[in-house]
């Protein structure tokens, strides 16, 4: 396993207009130009806080898991393996694309509603990319208390993988951590980390200094690897999301909604989605509505490699 050492790199989000029937802006922080993955985490959007009528029509995925973590509001998820569920705060939707799956995401009701959520993608290792699509919802995730060095203890909800000896029930294919951390005002807490993993901390709400560096809301501090803990200090209280895992060392080509190893795999998946191939199935409760694939850029898609 390659080790790169501790880092303290602030990653800033960029606005991405989704447009069309979704008519939403999101703040995207992964992938970044210099850092395509953190562990197997390869994508991070925050949509909201906003008041919107979200209508993300059926669209395909390959080679990844989608991790949806709502902060405010409800999201209706439907997919090609027959799932039709409503997701609420404190619950996890985890969809594994494998060789191919499609799904839709709607806000609940016909009017605009308050909505705020984090959506991540996790790259699947090559042996899992040929598997069948799957979906799981977890409504009761494990939580633990983190003793404070000053002030009240923090609480952590383990969303995916393992943190501080506590394991999420959600299916993971690589050594990984995804955990929501809540700190009360005037608190100083040391978060335990695995020294052989890389980590990052996303500031969701409040104020936080992580490893002695201020992390504004919406930004994420990349910590690198080779740390066994990191100190977090807040004055007003903070909501954070810790993500990380063993470095993902396979080549990864990402384009649109696909994660693969080569340009040709991406091109074939696009053609099959446009042709309505059985590979992606049909999203339950939908008719012919779907999001068409954009044209592939006139270049050979290549893997992205870290430069930090």
UniProtKB/TrEMBL annotation:
<keyword id="KW-0479">Metal-binding</keyword>
<feature type="domain" description="Pirin C-terminal">
    <location>
        <begin position="179"/>
        <end position="276"/>
    </location>
</feature>
<dbReference type="Pfam" id="PF05726">
    <property type="entry name" value="Pirin_C"/>
</dbReference>
<protein>
    <recommendedName>
        <fullName>Pirin family protein</fullName>
    </recommendedName>
</protein>
<feature type="binding site">
    <location>
        <position position="103"/>
    </location>
    <ligand>
        <name>Fe cation</name>
    </ligand>
</feature>
<comment type="similarity">
    <text>Belongs to the pirin family.</text>
</comment>
<dbReference type="InterPro" id="IPR008778">
    <property type="entry name" value="Pirin_C_dom"/>
</dbReference>
<feature type="binding site">
    <location>
        <position position="105"/>
    </location>
    <ligand>
        <name>Fe cation</name>
    </ligand>
</feature>
<dbReference type="InterPro" id="IPR012093">
    <property type="entry name" value="Pirin"/>
</dbReference>
<keyword id="KW-0408">Iron</keyword>
<feature type="binding site">
    <location>
        <position position="59"/>
    </location>
    <ligand>
        <name>Fe cation</name>
    </ligand>
</feature>
<dbReference type="InterPro" id="IPR011051">
    <property type="entry name" value="RmlC_Cupin_sf"/>
</dbReference>
<feature type="binding site">
    <location>
        <position position="61"/>
    </location>
    <ligand>
        <name>Fe cation</name>
    </ligand>
</feature>
<dbReference type="InterPro" id="IPR014710">
    <property type="entry name" value="RmlC-like_jellyroll"/>
</dbReference>
<dbReference type="Pfam" id="PF02678">
    <property type="entry name" value="Pirin"/>
</dbReference>
<dbReference type="InterPro" id="IPR003829">
    <property type="entry name" value="Pirin_N_dom"/>
</dbReference>
<feature type="domain" description="Pirin N-terminal">
    <location>
        <begin position="26"/>
        <end position="122"/>
    </location>
</feature>
<dbReference type="GO" id="GO:0046872">
    <property type="term" value="F:metal ion binding"/>
</dbReference>
């Amino acid at each position: 396993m390659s080790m790169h050492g501790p880092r303290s790199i602030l990653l800033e989000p960029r606005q991405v207009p989704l447009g069309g029937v979704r008519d939403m802006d999101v703040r995207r922080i992964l992938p970044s130009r210099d850092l395509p993955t953190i562990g197997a985490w390869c994508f991070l959007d925050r949509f909201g806080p906003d008041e919107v009528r979200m209508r993300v029509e059926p669209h395909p995925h390959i080679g990844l898991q989608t991790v949806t973590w709502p902060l405010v509001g409800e999201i209706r998820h439907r997919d090609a393996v027959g799932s039709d569920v409503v997701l609420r705060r404190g619950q996890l939707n985890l969809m594994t694309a494998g060789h191919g799956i499609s799904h839709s995401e709607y806000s609940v009701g016909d009017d605009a509603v308050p909505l705020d959520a984090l959506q991540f993608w996790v790259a699947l290792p090559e042996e899992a990319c040929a598997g069948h699509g799957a979906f799981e919802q977890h409504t009761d995730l494990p939580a633990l208390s983190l003793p404070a060095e000053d002030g009240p203890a923090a609480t952590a909800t383990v969303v995916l993988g393992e943190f501080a000896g506590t394991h999420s029930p959600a299916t993971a294919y690589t050594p990984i951590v995804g955990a929501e951390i809540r700190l009360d005002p005037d608190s100083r807490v040391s978060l335990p980390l695995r020294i052989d993993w890389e980590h990052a901390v996303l500031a969701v709400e409040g104020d936080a200094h992580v490893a002695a560096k201020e992390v504004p809301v919406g930004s994420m501090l990349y910590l690198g690897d080779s740390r066994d803990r990191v100190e977090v200090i807040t004055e007003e209280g903070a909501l954070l999301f810790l993500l990380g895992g063993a470095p993902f060392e396979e080549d990864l080509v990402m384009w649109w909604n696909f994660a693969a190893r080569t340009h040709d795999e991406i091109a074939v998946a696009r053609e099959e989605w446009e042709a309505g191939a059985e590979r992606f199935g049909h999203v339950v409760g939908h008719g012919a509505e779907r999001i068409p694939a954009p044209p592939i850029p006139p270049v050979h898609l290549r893997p992205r490699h870290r430069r930090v």
